[in-house]
Write a structure and sequence with these properties.
Layout: H1 2-13, H2 28-34, H3 40-56, H4 58-69, H5 74-81, H6 85-103
Length: about 100
């Protein structure tokens, strides 16, 4: 799912596709109303930061992927990674801080 979202963001941001312009397909109108569009540049920056973060701590990077790209809750991520919920929360807090610093 991550790869699909990143490639879609890159294709929308490409110069030949009118970078910076917002294009909305008719079938996406409802989806965008329910789920606000993520800024493509920020999504690409997140992917690049996540690629830098993965070699440092692969389990925490996997936790970010499950939470952000797959949309799992903290409880679901804890079960998927076989960790406790407090640990999942701590990992999420640490990972968000690290990624925010890497993206700025």
């Amino acid at each position: 799912m991550r790869r699909i979202l990143i490639e879609r963001a890159r294709s929308r941001a490409a110069i030949c596709h009118g970078a910076g312009q917002i294009r909305v397909a008719p079938e996406e109108v409802e989806n965008r109303a329910l789920n606000p569009a993520t800024d493509d540049r920020r999504l690409i920056a997140l992917d690049e930061a996540l690629a830098q973060f993965a070699p440092i701590d692969a389990r925490k990077a996997e936790r970010v992927k499950l939470r952000y790209f797959a949309g799992l809750s903290i409880e679901e991520v804890a079960k998927a990674l076989d960790i406790s919920e407090p640990t999942a929360k701590r990992w999420w807090t640490f990972s968000r801080a690290w990624l925010f610093q890497a993206m700025t």
